Amino acid sequence: MGDGEPRVPTAIAVTSADMALPPQDERTLPAAVLQDVDRRPLEQVLAELQTLVDQHGHLIVVCSRAVPASVERRLHTVRALLETDRIALFRPPLPPLGIAVLARQLRQLASCDLSPGVLASAGRLLTHYLHAGALLGSVARLDHVPVTLKAHARSWVPGSQFGVVAHPAPQLVKVGSEGALRGPEFGTWLLVAKGPLPSDWVTGTLAPSWRVQGLREAALPAESAHWWGTGRLTEFCAYLPDLSVLYQLVTSVRQSACHWCGIDVIGDRCVFCSATPPAYDDGSGGGRDRALGHRRDPALGHRRERRALTG
User: Fold this and answer.
1) Contacts of 231 (CB under 8 A, 6+ apart)
2) 308 vs 267, which has greater pLDDT?
């Protein structure tokens, strides 16, 4: 942006309206909602994504692993037909409410002076700071967290409730008779999406034990029942709400240029072209350093290369 032109913020998209949480602050940008991409005509979805790329330069689609496989196939098809590396499909291993929170954090950061590659890479980084779980009325069909035979048996006892954390590390306790769920070791807010199951334990027991600094409510995502294996649930997610903290976390990580498409990234994988650093084995044990050196080589002329590869 050295020529003085205003920077157009990267677009952040979600695959349903209930994954587009209300703004966290006045700088949170709206989400692009890609509704029913697997049901609408292909030409219509193609035109929608092409318009977003034309308007914003780059598009990051944050998608739950609970969406139907047809949604993921359609997104990959559209990306391939558009022949562009300017669309990133990001599917982190989070429950639906955690996906919605992460998408909103990226919407916050999209208002800052972060390049598209760094913003897309920030999704992986910020995932580590989310604590996502649920209060469940049954764990009989829970696939994303290990469940003991004892817990399975207790699922059939009327009135049983289970506190579960799926991320960052799996935990499961029976409410009222076992230990507490371990929470974040830093200050967070708690977002609660109430379902058919009463949420008193989440707001009255879990929130104080996690020493949350604030509590907000949201609608329960439609994908949550499928992801958790039951409709009797209340979902929750502890997160960092402040844009200044999120920005400091992202900008404190060393940036480098993707060796393939040339875009600036943090971490070891480009979210746009999916390339990982090349490995060199010269017997000296310096393969990692040489790979990073290759990525930083000015001879790559990464800005020119990016235009050539992505149009």
Assistant:
1) 195, 196, 225
2) 267
- Which tokens belong to 209? 């034990």
What is the token pair recorded at 172? 């499961």
Q: Is 241 left (phi over 0), alpha (psi -120 to 50) or beta?
A: alpha
Half-sphere exposure of 56 (CA within 13 A, CB side): 24
pLDDT band at 63 (very low <50, low <70, confident <90, very high): very high
Cβ burial of 82 (10 Å; 0-12, 13-18, 19+) is middle
CA distance 234 to 134: 6
| Upper half-sphere CA count for residue 194 (Cβ side, 13 Å) | 9
Among the residue ranges 196-200, 243-247, 303-307, the one predicted with the least confidence is 303-307
State residue 5 phi and psi, 5-degree precision. Answer: -75, 140
Average pLDDT rounded to a whole number, residues 161-174? 94
Decide: helix, strand or coil at residue 218: strand
* Residue 122: per-residue pLDDT: 94
| Chain position carrying tokens 């998408």 | 103
Could you tell me where the beta strands, DSSP code E, fall in the chain? Answer: 11-14, 32-33, 59-62, 87-90, 131-136, 162-167, 171-174, 189-193, 214-218, 233-239, 255-257, 264-266
Residue with tokens 């027991």: 205
DSSP 298: G
